[in-house]
Amino acid sequence: MSEPGTRPDGEVEIEVVDLHKSFGDLEVLVGIDLEVRTGEVVCVVGPSGSGKSTLLRCINQLEEPTSGTVRVEGTELTDPDVDIDAARRRIGMVFQAFNLFPHLRVLDNLTIAQRRVLKRDKAEAERVATANLERVGLLDKAQAYPAQLSGGQQQRAAIARALSMEPDLMLFDEPTSSLDPELVGDVLAVMRSLADEGMTMMVVTHEMSFARDVADRVIFMDEGAIVEEGAPQQVLGSPQHRRTQTFLQRVLDPTASHLGDVDDRQG
Predict the structure, then answer these.
(1) The whole model's pTM is what?
(2) What residues have CB less than 8 Å from 223, skipping those under 6 apart?
(3) Which residues make Cβ contacts (< 8 Å) with residue 175, sequence separation at least 6?
């Protein structure tokens, strides 16, 4: 894998221009501009409520932006005439909740969308599913039901399900936040392997070590805006903005007292 922050430039895979999103009177995104290039791993960090997950959901059009433009591989997903279902097939998404069908075995969870959306026959869908279960270390669980898996295994199955649609890029929305600490490592290891393979990835995460070690670029968001972005060693190791500094102090040393927080939003 390339050193973090050193991956060569590729084509623009995701382009977001002046993106705004409001829920009623609450403005959640306030003019986001960003690009993600082919093969790049971008981690988005920031406090809860900063708009990180909403940004990801707007990119995939699970939330409709209030204004602004989102393009994926040159297709404008915010165009009302776009075939959004066709566009979404190129985008794999993994959520905090695993969203596996509890009544289906793991293998069937991986084949159902392939057969219904991609129109693959059963044998081909199972071949792809089996390969992806092996890829995430779950081949021995193919005939199990989700309830028979640990949380970490369910999340790895969800990743394998997304990969079985053969997406061009992957969006991860805090994929480890609902896991017990001892289960986080296996999921992050799968994500690291995807980065090694050159998968374009945008990851909303609180896992600072993953962002530091794997990301090519880190974006820090607060109050619906991008406050700071750059190579992980710069944003996480030597942040320039007071809000980034305060956030990292809280995350890296949660027991410390932050008596100066009242002035943080002036930074």
Answers:
(1) 0.89
(2) 30, 50, 51, 265
(3) 94, 95, 96, 155, 158, 159, 187, 191, 203, 205
Choose among 165, 148, 190: nearest CA to 86.
Answer: 165
The size of the chain, in residues, is 267
CA gap 257, 149 in Å, rounded: 39
Q: Is the pLDDT of residue 241 over 90?
A: yes
Residue with tokens 């390339």: 2
Q: Residue 257's pLDDT is what?
A: 52
